[in-house]
Amino acid sequence: MKKLELKIAFTEFDNENEMSSSEQDLLQKARNAGGLAYAPYSNFHVGAALLLENGVIVTGNNQENVAYPSGLCAERVAMYYAGAQYPDVAIKTIAITCKSKTFHVGEPLSPCGGCRQAMSEYEMRHKSNIRVILMGETGKIRVVDSIADLLPFMFKAEELKNN
């Protein structure tokens, strides 16, 4: 038996002003989308903005339902729309922001496991890494260059195939 260690690399910015204007714009679009979220139960608004390889920006926000499993996260709303409207276009970057009506979100929060797995599917489908930008309401911003940094042991389609 041996114990192994897994490390990830990420970039951390102190604020948006350290980022490119296009990344700042993507974060603003994610914040705007989050402001339109339907979140009457959690009061937790999440916005996502995707930059596609063709330059199109697609946004999404969380959509809750009184039957909680019936809701959908902002990341998947945006990704599934992009997949339906632009099926052959890769996602270059996703910016994700969050805000609560009941507490201050001062740290970047990471996507849930289901969204991480959905993002990994898009990376594998298009054979292209997705840059992930994470931000709370204020404060630091974390960036990873691939969903594999957030989901190192992702479930892959090859694992379902007989060799």
How would you explain this protein's 3D organization?
This protein is 25% helix and 22% strand. The chain is of the alpha+beta class. Strands 1-6-5-4-2-3 form a six-stranded mixed beta sheet. Strand 4, helix 3 (113-126) and strand 5 form a beta-alpha-beta unit. The protein starts with 10 loop residues before the first strand and ends in a 19-residue tail after the last strand. 29% of the residues are buried. The mean pLDDT is 94.
Keywords for this entry:
6-stranded mixed β-sheet, single chain, alpha+beta, Cytidine Deaminase, domain 2
CATH superfamily: Cytidine Deaminase, domain 2
- CATH fold type: Cytidine Deaminase, domain 2
Low-confidence segments, ≥5 residues, pLDDT <50? none
* Percentage of residues in strands: 15-25%
Provide the CATH architecture: 3-Layer(aba) Sandwich
- Broad CATH class: Alpha Beta
In short:
The protein has 163 residues and is α+β, with helices and mostly antiparallel strands. It has helices spanning 21-35, 74-85, 113-126, and strands spanning 11-13, 44-52, 57-61, 91-100, 131-135, 141-144.
List the SSEs and their pairings.
Elements: E1 11-13, H1 21-35, E2 44-52, E3 57-61, H2 74-85, E4 91-100, H3 113-126, E5 131-135, E6 141-144
Parallel strand pairs: 4-5
Antiparallel strand pairs: 1-6, 2-3, 2-4, 5-6
